[in-house]
Amino acid sequence: MKKLLVYSLSLFMFAILFFSIASADVIPGNSHPLDRCVKIVNLDKFPDMYLIAYITGPMVDKYETYIIKKDECLSKGYKFNQLKILAVKKSYLDSIGIDNFNPFKKILKKDIKLNKNLNCYYDSSDENSPCLDNIEDWQEEVLSDKNVFVSDEEINPYGGYIDQNDSLIKEEINYSIAKFSDGKLVLYKSQQISEYNDGTPKKIETFDNSSNNNSSNDSDDNELNDQNSQLNKTIPVPVENLDASLPSPELIKIEPIKRNFWQSIVCFFQKLFTGSCQ
Questions:
Q1: Strands (DSSP E) along the chain, which ranges?
Q2: Which of 159, 179, 262, 269 has its CA 20 to 30 A from that of 80?
Q3: pTM of the model
């Protein structure tokens, strides 16, 4: 009886897990797919380095890695997986092989203490810390290899589905390597190309690393701004450059109206009673 109960509970938990994953893959209503391609485009400027895709997540056993190639769309597999971009020296990776490459190790966070009353573990440096049953839950992944540089850029190559009313159907997002510094790989979004299904022209945006991705130069906007700036410019024309053949504007000369004595008397009374004289 006990074995039957354990078997039933196991089957029930498996069914819940299966249907939760399956339901996450259901195509949402009133939506259409978005074709997204994310690339890293200036790999050839760093011939001594490999760029590595490091993938973890619910559908990955520990981790997966692959070498990123120039102008190749990135992939992370299942949509809920996480993707990190790493850089590693070619000489180092060639010596150990990518199958033996795991730059992270798990260590226990410092200041973890045991609450003997509750028999759980908490972070003594944080007054709002939760108390967890297993000390392993306080482990964190840290970089363990000085030959590796890790990017903090959050890159999601999965397009998925977007609202049906959104006319965007395809986008290409290009990242560039800025530098390697203090164990960090610094990437920035250098270009984004968007295509639409409603006749909207293809949109090309470029981004400058020095402005932290906040300055975009849309080719259409630039052209429009240039035209507007020309329209708003006032260009003075020197008097000596005026064409003498053009007709001069005519001046209207206003002369006083002449009245006789009686007309002047009548005008006086008109002004007195009506305020004007015709």
A1: 31-33, 35-40, 49-56, 64-67, 82-89, 104-108, 112-115, 120-123, 139-143, 148-150, 161-163, 168-181, 184-196, 203-207, 216-218
A2: 179
A3: 0.59
